[in-house]
Design brief:
Blueprint: H1 2-21, E1 22-25, E2 29-35, E3 38-43, E4 46-49, E5 55-61, E6 65-75, E7 81-92, H2 95-100, H3 105-122, H4 126-131, H5 133-148, E8 153-165, H6 167-209, H7 211-226, H8 240-253
Antiparallel strand pairs: 1-4, 2-3, 2-5, 6-7, 7-8
Main location: membrane
Domain Band: 20-177
Keywords: Membrane, Transmembrane, Transmembrane helix
Length: 254
């Protein structure tokens, strides 16, 4: 009985130690092992053994992690206040650095994402933020990737989710867009009038060189009018000499 009383507790202790020594990690996980406080290595995936009490382990997930960056009030370069939020995607590529180089890589990456978002947006004008989102996303991603590289982290993507502007600024932007459209329409109209004047100048010069062509043009116009079913009265009181004189005067004026 005395031997059994000794062996049974030892067996229980051995089972407990063995259960603590056996570790299993998934394919997407790695375990950083510290032996008596010193880095021993990285294990996984699958089954491996550690020394209980002597070894301590830190499990790291290697899958892509998404950070929801809360809305940040940012003043753009042209002094417009906007509220911007984004989503940042990153992945741990070096578990050893992620454990040793930063205290809490998740929290540090989230805080760095917020400050980088404000820094990048603050260097841009509002029009650039609204119209060039792909470039803004790429710029934020590149800066985050450089900053997190010493931590063994790779930033795989950044997406601006929303850019909010207050009502006063929205009305100002609408007025600016309306003024811009009005300016474009006036420019197009002026260009059309200029081209028409150029063509009229060229036609006047041709009619001056060949006066008979002006009479032919007049007859052609009369023929086109005659094909209409409406009653139209045309009074032709200007002779060919007067028409040629007018054409010549118009060409000289140009």
């Amino acid at each position: 009985m005395a031997l059994i009383d000794i062996i049974f507790p030892l067996a229980i202790v051995a089972v407990i130690i063995l259960s603590k020594a056996i570790k299993i990690v998934n394919e997407y996980e790695r375990v950083v092992i510290f032996r008596l406080g010193r880095l021993s290595g990285v294990k996984g995936p699958g089954l491996f053994l550690i020394i209980p009490i002597i070894d301590t382990v830190v499990k790291i997930d290697l899958r892509v992690i998404a950070i929801d960056v809360p809305k940040q009030a940012v003043i753009t370069r042209d002094n417009v206040t906007v509220a911007v939020d984004a989503v940042v995607y990153y992945q741990v590529i070096d578990p050893t650095k992620a454990v040793n180089e930063v205290e809490n890589f998740r929290y540090a990456t989230a805080m760095l994402s917020q400050t980088t978002l404000r820094d990048v947006i603050g260097q841009l004008e509002l029009d650039d933020v609204l119209s060039n989102r792909e470039d803004v996303n790429r710029n934020i991603q590149e800066q985050l990737d450089i900053s997190t590289d010493p931590w063994g982290i790779k930033v795989t993507g950044v997406t601006l989710r929303d850019v909010s502007i207050d009502e006063t600024m929205l009305r100002a932007i609408a007025k600016q867009a309306e003024a811009e459209r009005e300016k474009r329409s006036r420019i197009i109209l002026s260009e059309g009038e200029y081209m028409a004047a150029e063509k009229m100048k060229q036609a006047a010069m041709l009619y001056q060189e060949v006066p008979a062509s002006l009479k032919l043009r007049e007859l052609q116009t009369l023929a086109e009018i005659s094909r209409e079913k409406n009653m139209i009265v045309v009074s032709n009181t200007t002779d060919l000499g007067e028409i040629a004189a007018l054409s010549k005067a118009f060409a000289k004026k140009e």
